[in-house]
Amino acid sequence: MKRVMALFFSVSILLLQLSIGVYAGETRDKFDIEYDGKVHQYTSNVVTLNIDGKAVATGEMPAIIIDSRTLVPAREVFESAGFNAKVDWNGEKQEVYISYNDQKIVLKIGSNIAFVNNNPITLDVPAKLIRDTSQKNPKTMIPLRFVTENLGYKIEWNQSSYTASITSLSQNPEVPVEETPEVPIEEIKNGDELDELNSDKANRLLPTELATNPVTWSSIIAPVEQSAKSVISAQNNSLVSITSVEYKSDSRSFSIQASGPISFVENTFMESDSKYVVDIYNANKVAGNATYSDNPIVTAVRTGQQEDRDGKKVTRVVFDLKSTSASYDLSISGDRKTLNFVMKDNNLSKVHLGQNEKGDYIRLTGTSAPEVTAFRLSNPDRIVFDMERTVSLVGKQTKNDTLGQYILSMRTDQFKTSTARVVVETDGHADYSITKIDNVTTLIQMHEPTYDNIKYENTTIPIITLENVGSRINLEGITYEDKYNTKKYIINLPGNYEDVFGTGNMHIDDSIISQIEIKKNNSGNTSLVIHSKSVYVYRLEADNENLYIKAYKPKEIYSKIVVIDTGHGGKDPGASANGYYEKDLNLAITHYLKEYLDADSSIKVYYTRLDDTFIELVARTDFANEVEADFLISIHNNALGETANGTETIYFKDADRSGLNSNELAAILQQNIVNAVGLKNRGIKDNNSLSILRRSNMPAAIVEVGFVTSKIDIAKISDKNVQKNAAKAIYNSIVQVFAEYPTRR
Ligand SMILES: [Zn+2]
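Above: the input record for the complex with zinc ion. Below: its predicted structure, written as tokens.
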């Protein structure tokens, strides 16, 4: 009942406010704004907002007065710390939803009817999409007084300073506050536990500056209703040319480019014909047709020209679809010159970074609540949140100095064609939890770590101790993942031990380990992810009380260590001829070689790459030096004129070593490969200028199995059986080298 009363009260204030002129006071910022399809010069004053005496930032669009009413950017103002309301936008319905405590307000762009808790209320000025013409995108502007009062705030207007002063519930004695019991933060169970955690608490105390300066990134392209007819009202329209229709693989979208602002678009999804038809009014066709053989969704794009009943020119763009099961979105850019036809399973439309009583949080809004997977990177500590099969409408955004409790910076981008990504850099102390909070929103809440019963010491040897588990953990059920390429070592415990170890990120940062994550893995069991600073081998031991994880150098554990370097990769294809890239041939041989080596547990092998990634030459030798390999073999194929052919092995002419020398390694490899592959024997060659040989501390050889440029050779080296034979020959060479030159460890 009280709420209804408050509502009437606010409406009457609203009517009084109507009569106040807007031309009083000094005119400050003159700028152009676009709304209702027209550009207007803004000649009135901009409005200053404060809540409980603190200024409210409005972002790039100031609070302005239209028809004697103050309109403010919805998100910036109502999601600011003073209000902490939740603002959502439905582009299809052109509706803004503001929720705060139990109040829910719905405003529709251009409509004089708003709904407060489902009750219709008449407005004298509707919500509008208003664009400052110096900015790219319009802002959703909503009437300040109407919304603040219906959220239960008090608002006072100062005409001389053009200031709206808002007083919140707790400081406003006129509005009775219902008694709500203090809700303790669930993580904190007792004082003792809290003290123990102090060692790994965030460096900053709540609230930090983020509380008053939240970060919101919204769609830079607004999704448009699929079945609707109009994209933007047809005012001010003039004839435009459709200049191109292009596929952008990074965003899985087709962009239709026009010479000027597009006025009116009609689009139809014809499921039975597997077509998507876009009619652009007041447009002339310039772009032609195109077919796409390898596009995941569209087989062809056709453009045609016609006229409507009124003789208006209409360009029709037809997308022939491969599948009708995926979903599609048509959207328009802020300048209305680009239509984007996006294929998606989900769209990320908003990324919001704010702070609540638990700490920093990130709210991700999509067409449906985003499915988020996360992983951690160290040096500096970053948490990567990936949304698979999601197209980001937010674009590429970066915010440094977010000044959160833990979060130091945040960025977002379309990581891969199908993966939207948000990355935060933290101070290394934060733990996080991911929860879907409604149909369209996923919340990532950062909070204090809860880990316990885990200790790290580095006196004589680095040891991680898991305490008080005794015989509870079955050692044989523990699995170990050696992710040496990223220097991550994962220990998966056979069960969920959250009750013992909690979760979180243990910040270490000594010479060996940067951090240890204690988390629940995808199968619901407890995992320890050790972010190591260099390549180590982590071994487990146990006694009746504790479990110990000890770090060793590879040489302390393994008697035979080899580094297999696969030449080139990623953006560096190596030699390319006869329809083949050297990088692929090299990798194929490595994969066969790995099969042989995997079956031989007496040899520890470290690979520089096992997929198509680019690795700097320096990083390859640094890696081999770090693991202190007994020798290094780099797998390549050759290139020269068409007539050059055959197998050769290159080595660094090193000063005489006590055991194996590079030339001896090269000779064994060369003989075995020639015998197995059957190409011309070009012999072994010394070359002291090649980085991979020169910079490695151990004997090293580059095998050039054959010439990509030779018709004779390529027929062989592209053949799977020959690749397998070459791999077998390299494996036999490794065994032979260790037999002839034992490491004696
Ligand atoms: Zn090469």
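Notes for the reader.
The radius of gyration is 33 Å.
The first helix runs from residue 2 to 18.
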